[in-house]
Task: structure prediction
Amino acid sequence: MIGRLHGELVSKHPPRLMLDIGGVGYELEAPMSTFYDLPPMGEKVTLVTHLTVREDAWILYGFLREEDRALFRNLLKVSGVGARMALAILSGMDAQRFALCVRQEDITALTRLPGIGKKTAQRLVMEMRDRVGTVPTGSPADIVTAPSLGGDRNSALTDAVDALTALGYKPADADRMARAADDGTKTSEEIIRAALKAVSTP
Result:
């Protein structure tokens, strides 16, 4: 089991990133809650990880915070929730916000997340009620964080649309959301954050 990686950030195209560790590139998938706080390219970063082994692939998922990994693992135990949906949930709200939605049985807030209908939201509330209290807080000690800057406008917008599509939004909706959130100065991560915030706000 690979539980933790520390290396140089060499690529980030939400929801995928790559770490160089001793000359070996590790590809990981990560929620936007992790992408928002990643350091600039070329900097060192530590991620806690979850490894999924399938017949056709080994997939690594990376998280800056232990509480996000814990929630991801708990979500995978819910009937009908796979890794893609779990990443979408963590991209739309952090662990504390999700726990609050579950405790308050806020079905409306949960259904604003991509791919989650009313029945799935109700199942999340029912099956996660006893688990959200066990999500730890805190983060790895040696995380280096800094604002992510740069990239041309077309690239930032395209990357944002691709990321929103990967999270489960329909391509047309992802394009509309990204364009509405882009003011011409944002990075792809900032566009995605603004787009997801707009969707989750009543």
